Amino acid sequence: MAEGDRWLTLPKVNLHHHLEGAVRLETFLEYAVAYKLPIPVRTLPEAAAYLQVSDQDQSLADFLVKVDRSLEISKYPGVLERMAFEAVEDSYRQNVHYLEIRFGPWLHVTEARPLEGVIEEVLQGMARACRLYPITARLIVCALRQHAPEKNLALVTAAAKYRDHGVVGFDIAGDEAAYPADIFVEAFKLAKAAGLGITVHAGEVGEGSRVLEAIKLLGADRIGHGIQIADHPALVEQVKAAGVTLEVCPTSNVHTRSVPNLASHPIRRLFDQGVRISLGDDDPTTSGITISSEYQLLRERFAFTPAEIAQVVLAGAQAAFLPQDQKEHLAAELRQKLDSWLQSEA
After folding, report:
1. Predicted confidence (pLDDT) at residue 45 exceeds the cutoff of 70
2. DSSP class of residue 42?
3. CA-CA distance, 98 to 334, in Å (whole number)?
4. Is residue 208 within 8 Å of 228, Cβ to Cβ?
5. Which of 174, 168, 207 lies closest to 191, judged by CA?
6. Who's near 117: CB < 8 A, 6+ residues apart?
7. Residue 329 burial class via C-beta count within 10 angstroms: exposed 0-12, middle 13-18, buried 19 and up
8. pTM for this entry
9. Residue 248 pLDDT greater than 70, yes or no
10. Is 121 part of the annotated catalytic residue set?
């Protein structure tokens, strides 16, 4: 079996997958040409150069510039629906059994498309893919730290309307250092009361204290990234005691300069310390990766055994923002498929 096929056969869960960073190069190119966008993209290699990180990108800010370039096409009619459909379709092709897509609705609002319309368009694309393929996909609505509290409150209110139509979680991303969690307490209380799962981008950079803040002040069930706690034993123990799962995205952490290189990434140490770990691909187009290639890294760069990789998959299932009975069904289905995968790895 070819090495790539080996990792495609692994049944997976992906809890950290940004819609804006997952647009297909072919789709971006199609719209760039069709709308004659004033950007240097008229071929597939040019689309890759425009959307993907390079050696010239030296910071999280540089990385986010590349992610935000998908907004240049998402404003056109039907594009968000197509992006959402293709994100689910691509995940199915990576043998993902359960996917949570997150996106920032305010980034896509236009005069012709209100906040609710943005959310509905993404949900429609996801639902269309789930009717076509045997994959379960749900949506996380992501607020931004730099937005006014009133804007994030409006976002929670809108997200809650779709609680029974595919929206399962609420998140916040942005500059951790500049915008501490206490600004957002009201929004997250409202999200929690509406029955949404809480995940918070925290501990991607800095010394990790924002992770504890997210848990204590915002009621985080999961943390996006959280890797900076690894050098702080007290924080590690508090995260473990809270039963919080970290959504870890190794390649992205290198590309955003959260860590200098893969060799220094703490995912192995966090796992060995007993922290619950789920693996995500963050912005796969931006990083030029797949969720399968991230699982391959666990084995080849971080020395995870096949049994430990199966643990990571199941940790994702157990942390999914699903009703308990659906979560148990997902975990049971994955255990059966993982048993077969482990036998093939023996």
Report:
1. yes
2. S
3. 10
4. yes
5. 168
6. none
7. middle
8. 0.96
9. yes
10. no
The residue type found at 208 is G
* pLDDT value at residue 95: 98
Question: Comparing 7-11, 24-28, 64-68, which segment has the lowest mean pLDDT?
Answer: 64-68
Please report where in the chains the tokens 């049971």 appear, as a residue. 332
Chain CA centroid to CA 238, Å: 23
Q: What is the mean pLDDT of the chain?
A: 95
Residue 1 has pLDDT above 80, yes or no: no
- CA dihedral of 196, 197, 200, 203, whole degrees rounded to 10: 170
Give residue for tokens 């995912």.
Answer: 267
pLDDT, tens digit, 9 for 90 and up, residues 103-144: 999 999 999 899 999 999 999 999 999 999 999 999 999 999
Is residue 199 helix, strand or coil? strand
pLDDT digits (tens, 9 = 90+) for 255-296: 999 999 999 999 999 999 999 999 999 999 999 999 999 999
Catalytic residue among 72, 81, 89, 204: 204
- Measured between alpha carbons, how far is 37 from 64 in angstroms, rounded to an integer? 20
Q: What is the DSSP letter of 244?
A: P
What percent of the chain shows pLDDT beyond 70?
99
> ∠ CA 270-267-168 to the nearest 5 degrees?
90
Quick one: how far is CA 321 from the chain centroid? 13
Handedness of CA 127, 252, 43, 71 (dihedral sign): positive
- Which domains are present in the chain? 3-333 (3.20.20.140)
Residue type, 91: S
Name which of 238, 145, 128 is nearest 188 in CA terms.
145
